[in-house]
Write a structure and sequence with these properties.
alpha+beta; seven-stranded antiparallel sheet; 18% helix
């Protein structure tokens, strides 16, 4: 599955999603994932029957359904930002730079 691109549902009303559209294409470099996180803002997530560009086997694709890729959790006086996929991997997507910058300035 490394190299497959998944279309994420994106919450652009959250500060992590500021300035972006309601979707984000994420390059999967591994099969790692989180189930939807509780008491957290699941900002970028893969829904049911995800759009996949490239190759992902049927079992790998099924395992990624309804999982969180980017999330933010309040903790103490700050936030913990979860990023399963690297938004800066080889500067592949321009939107990845926006996600990373938003994550940095989210705690300011």
């Amino acid at each position: 599955m490394p190299g497959a691109i998944f279309k994420l549902n994106w919450d652009n009303t959250h500060p992590l999603g500021f300035g972006m559209s309601d979707y984000y294409f994420s390059l999967k470099t591994s099969s790692r994932h989180f189930q939807y996180l509780k008491n957290t803002s699941n900002v970028g997530y893969i829904g049911k029957n995800p759009l996949v560009l490239g190759f992902a086997g049927s079992k790998a694709k099924k395992a990624q359904e309804e999982t969180t890729v980017f999330a933010v959790q309040r903790m103490g006086r700050g936030n913990v930002t979860y990023m399963v996929d690297n938004p800066l991997f080889r500067a592949f997507w321009y939107q990845g730079k926006m996600v990373f910058a938003n994550a940095i300035f989210l705690n300011q």
